[in-house]
Amino acid sequence: QAQLMESGGGMAQAGGSLRLSCAADGIFSRTMGWYRQAPGNEREVVASISVNGTTTYADFVKGRFTISRDNGKNSVYLQMNSLKIEDTGVYYCNKLFGAPWVWGRGTRVTVSS
Predict the structure, then answer these.
(1) How far apart, in whole angstroms, are the C-alpha atoms of residue 72 and residue 54?
(2) 88 CB burial (10 A radius; 0-12, 13-18, 19+)
(3) What single DSSP character describes residue 99?
(4) What is the CA radius of gyration of the chain?
(5) 47-to-106, 112, 113 alpha-carbon distances in Å
(6) Which residues lie below 8 Å from residue 42, measured CB to CB, with a gap of 6+?
(7) Are 104 and 80 in contact (CB under 8 A)?
């Protein structure tokens, strides 16, 4: 059972950028996803990356966010550019397939105008 630790969130203005990081033992062997939970909404997948680097993105972040990974560091990253107010939420990482690991505390992103 991996212990997921997300970091890098904070406050940004619309149009700005943030880079999120997630580290945990075992990430290197898993397809990983970044998820977000906006206030009052369900948690949703934002992006995913396979072990060999194949990526997928939700339509609402395509062209703005980039997911990457460093298997040697057991880490995944989310570069978020051109942030929008609706990107506000708590961001989590976890496996994309199978029963999720215990969710970490996430990292909060707040985008203001």
Answers:
(1) 17
(2) middle
(3) S
(4) 13
(5) 15, 22, 24
(6) none
(7) no
* Phi, psi (degrees; rounded to nearest 5) at 22: -140, 130
**Which residues are CB-contacts of 111 (< 8 A; sequence separation ≥ 6)?**
11, 12, 13, 14, 16, 83, 84, 85, 86, 87, 88
The per-residue pLDDT for range 51-105, each reduced to its tens digit, is 999 999 999 999 999 999 999 999 999 999 999 999 999 999 999 999 999 999 9
- Evaluate whether 93 touches 48 at the Cβ level (below 8 Å): no
Q: What is the DSSP string of 12-81?
A: EETT--EEEEEE-TTGGGS-EEEEEE-TTS-EEEEEEE-TT--EEE-TTTTTTEEEEEEGGGTEEEEEE-
- 37 — phi, psi (to 5°)? -130, 110
How many Å apart are CA 11 and CA 25, to the nearest integer? 28
